[in-house]
Structure of Sialic acid-binding periplasmic protein SiaP:
Amino acid sequence: MNKRIKVILLAAIASLSVVGCSSSKGNEARVMRVAHNQGEEHPIHLALKEFEKIVEDKTNNEIDIQVYPNELLGGQRESVELTQTGAIDIAVGSISLLESFNKSYSVFNLPYLFNSKEHYHSVMNDKDIMGDIYESTRESGFVGLTWFDAGSRNMYTTDKPVMKPEDLKGKKIRVQQSQTNIRMMELLGGSATPMSFGEVYTALQQKVIDGAENNELALTNNKHGEVAKYYSYNQHGMIPDILIMNAKLLDNLSEEHRNIILDAANEINKFQVDAWEDKVSEAVEQSKKMGVKFYYPDTEPFKEKVLPLHREMTENDKEVKVIYDKIQAKAPTSK
Ligand code: GCU
């Protein structure tokens, strides 16, 4: 993070903390700040407001949850870094971003890793797989609590639809700040342009980039559909978000409060996942009204280009291979 921005952010967060302590919820309340980069209509925000309600009720307001949407406490990378140090208590991080904090997360960034939504959800709900991965960043200062659905990621562009990998040639496509995503875009033939989510709208508008890749909510909640009118379902990724928490804070809570936090995280996972499909349908309808057109290219040519990445990532890394194999073993066809 740029040093100047970090100083400004830390000063802003410190001043928020004072306000929090003297809140109407009482001087005794332990304020916990939760940061994310989505808008207030997004299912992640709605789920976190639910988290706030559950935790405050169950702790009789001894914990005061404060949710900051819209990158108010910084972009996703900054909020994860601030959660490492404890300047922020809880944050949401895409698995794409988390791979730079522990390599076990990188597997989930492999394109076409899951062969269906059922496969994806069964892995994310499998505590034997996810438990260790959530703990893998403990030494870096944070742990995972639960996951949020982020649907499937597809290409969208400002000038013409992407119907085959060749259409990406010479195009600057925004990807998340992740080595695996950058490599994926290289294999597809596009020019990978990593940047924070909050910068994408302006970059599209100012033609700094020709497109991006994301789920349908980016078109509406983040207004990308105002400038990018061609959305192609090449379905290269299903990359969830993880709710993370500063590890020391979680460990130092009383057992009662820790259990309340962990149970509430499980509850809002169900709430968010249940809300997801409806939100996607709404986003598609709304996008059509904005003039966005949806395309359904053959996914095989895309797969052919990027499947070598599976071997590249797993062949020299036993630990990563173990996770990869566990995920493959859960694919419905291998049963
Ligand atoms: C999705 C995801 C976010 C992520 C964003 C991105 O919206 O839910 O966590 O930051 O994609 O592409 O950066």
Remarks:
- Residues 37, 76, 94, 150, 176, 197, 214, 218, 241 surround alpha-D-glucopyranuronic acid (CB under 6 Å).
